[in-house]
Amino acid sequence: MNRPLPTAPRLARLACRVAAAMMLLQGGAHAMSLTQAYENALRNDPTFQGAVAERDAGAEYRVLGRSALLPALQGSYSTNRNWADITEPNGLGRQVTSHPEYISKSAVVQLRQPLFSMEAWARYKQGQAQSDFSVAQFSGRTQEMVLRVVGAYVDALFAEEQVRLARIQRDAYLEQKQVNDRLFKGGEGTRTDTLETQARLDLAEAQLIEAEDNATTLRATLSTLVGEEVRGLDQLAPQFRLAPPDAGGYDALKEIALANNPDIQAARFALQAADQEINKNRAGHMPKLDMVASLSKSSSETINTYNQDSTVRAIGIQLTIPLYQGGAVSASTRQAVATREKSRADLQVQTDRVLLELRKQYSLVLSSVTRIRALDKAVASGQLLMEATRQSIKGGVRINLDLLNAQQQLYTSERDLAQARYAYLLGMLRLRAAAGSLSPNDVREVAAYFH
Questions:
Q1: What's the pTM?
Q2: CATH class as words, domain 8-69+117-286+322-447
Q3: DSSP category for residue 322
């Protein structure tokens, strides 16, 4: 009997599966580890590179603030061609007018050193707070980058795991259909068993194609993040170990988060900068005392010093007392006070958000441990159920639908177990990020779960 030629849709699906299999084989030879993905993202992720530039720009606030306390040295030079009309009496009592043409020159070097300036001191303290804010913000962006890389990595891995499980399920249904067909032709099976298995097989084919498409998309997402094409990923090690819980529990982590979380730190520094903005505006009502030293040289600077050269050296103090600026100082101070209160509220909002995230991730990690242990048992039980169902079908106790349901149950348990393991690893990193203790060592620790 001639076997029917495959249809165009079947050929397309077959080509897709072959291409995916070849990609996986190629990936195994060029697998990118989690540590490599992290290091590549440090160099290539445009979002992180933008954070680096922002941090470098923020570091200059410290220099700008300090400059207000340091001496300011400036020089000026001018030269002019002059045409003058001078009328003066001569010795005979007559008025004589002359028209001298001359060049005047003037060069001045001045040094100004603040002795007392509330505004300069406020600018200095504000510059420090703004630079510290940039450092804290960059620390938070670095932790976000770690979570994005690890999240993209485990998402791509879970997508591959779904492809693997979907293929196993599809193959199992295909094998079962062949058994049903053989039994039906021999008069021992039923048409219903064949149709049931065919329906499950068609659904599994569709799920496999969807899983392969999703895996391709997520791997491309990771490639964009690390700046190069990802051809393969390390897989979870066979023995998945659960880390011991953090010493001290949630309360210890809360204390660490309040002290070290970069988002809370950034909000605190923003509040400090807002405090200094108030002092800077209030300085508009305060006197300012400067030491001023100058050296000036001039030649025919004015008509009265025509054809005269002079050198003047001066040193002294200059007191400036502001009297009235149309209410601008009071208005800007009130505006700065309102901004400071907003910064205070932002600090409380940020603190509440961080502690809520810390509680959420702490509970997720604890529940993930219980969930992983339960799913380990579910997978083992599902494998035993599959074998028992096969034996029961042979004895006439169970039917074909029972086996299909057992296969689906095992597939679901294996998928949920893989998802729970990846969620556990990512949850540990998110918990440490919320506590403000996430570091490259944590990436290497998670990378040890893969091989």
A1: 0.80
A2: mainly alpha
A3: -
